[in-house]
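Data deposition worksheet. Section B asks for the primary sequence of the deposited chain exactly as it was used as input, without tags or linkers unless they were present during the calculation. Section C holds the resulting structure in token form. Section D is free text for depositor observations; keep each observation to a single sentence. Incomplete worksheets are returned to the depositor.
Section A, Depositor: J.P.
Section B:
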Amino acid sequence: MNMKKRRSLLVLLTLFLSAALLLQGCGSNAKNDNGNTSGSTTEKGENESAPKGGPVTLKVWGDLGNQAVLEEPYKKINEAFMAKNPDIKIQYDFAQNDQSLNVALQANELPDLFVVQGNKTPRMKEMVGQGFLLPLDDYKLDTSRFAEGEIDYATVDGKMYSALPSFTDTQLVYYNKELFEKNGIGEPANWDEFVQALDKLKAAGVTPISMPGKSEWDRSWLVYAMSSALANDALNAVLKSGGKVTDPALAKALQNYRDFAEKGYFGKDFIANDMAGAQFAFTNGKAAMIVDGTWNNQTYASSGLNVGRFILPNAEGKKIAAASFSNFMTYAVSAKSEHPDQAVKYIEFLNSLEAQQILEDATGLVPTLKDITAKNDEVKELGNFDEAGPAIYAVMSALASTDSNTADILMKDVIPKLFTSKITGEEAVKLLDESATYTD
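Section C:
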């Protein structure tokens, strides 16, 4: 077992706002007149350099896994930016996922700008240490609209490296109001009422929760929500006051995940179901609920379904969200960019109210800045929680070391073994504890 270590309150404050949006998939499409694409990058060599005296072309990678949500707003954001900066052309390709980013890092062939996740994971700090990112401090960016937490997100060792976040993410329950009403179920006021609703739906022949068992990250959102609802104090204690991941509350939260699978709350054959299949089942009335992130709200809002939303309540009815900053607008500049000044102008625009309002109007995310006008009442449901707590993934990341990645063990080992009944909640926390490194 590794030497144990405990994280300080400073780590807690920076990791409080953490959870996973993960970039996934791969694809390609042709580039349109605005330099936007609906797939991977154009062939190498095209627009490699601007004609002498012509506009500079910036290659920007978009989040491929969230292309359906981001394609419309980024087309508008890029058009607005180019209208203000006619000497800069944006070649925006939805080309970034974990695989493509790893390949680009290994080959040291990053685009001018690409998505980073700030202090939600150790990745940005690692890239800074390896010299991949351009520090932005010399450009004197205006940060007056942003709070300390948003600035900390983009900062490594006292220097800023990305555009600043302006929206909050969390995981919550989306539910079919008509199925709830048909079965005499209201929005649960506490944990027991939530479990009672699951039993009632199952007895009526309705799949309670549409679960994407095949999708590594998407199947974890319920674990995020459960651990925040049932083990928030335990997660906080790990970070700031001497707690361990073997806390019984965390073991119980993870055991609930296993129990839900065994009781049939996820329906049949959920292990082979991907996120697209899970979303299809929910939006077509085959399941009463799905647990997903606020970032996918527009998917459900535009489905034609009468959708409700709630954060999982704990035993006392308190709603604690595993809240994190959204990385939908947090881009960094490659240290090898041939056009760093122009790339920073794009960062400046992403930090502006104009760009942020475009994203808000298209997605309905929960703003963290008061001057962003919320899209509609859906945002009130998305942000309806009593307290923000640390996400379980962030806590496990804080316990990782060069020898053992506790967060990876949670995602790749613990969660799949729980929903296939290979381990109990107590065995799950022991696995995490054995890989954890605690510091005072």
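Section D:
The CA atoms of residues 209 and 289 lie 5 Å apart.
The chain has 17 helices and 15 strands.
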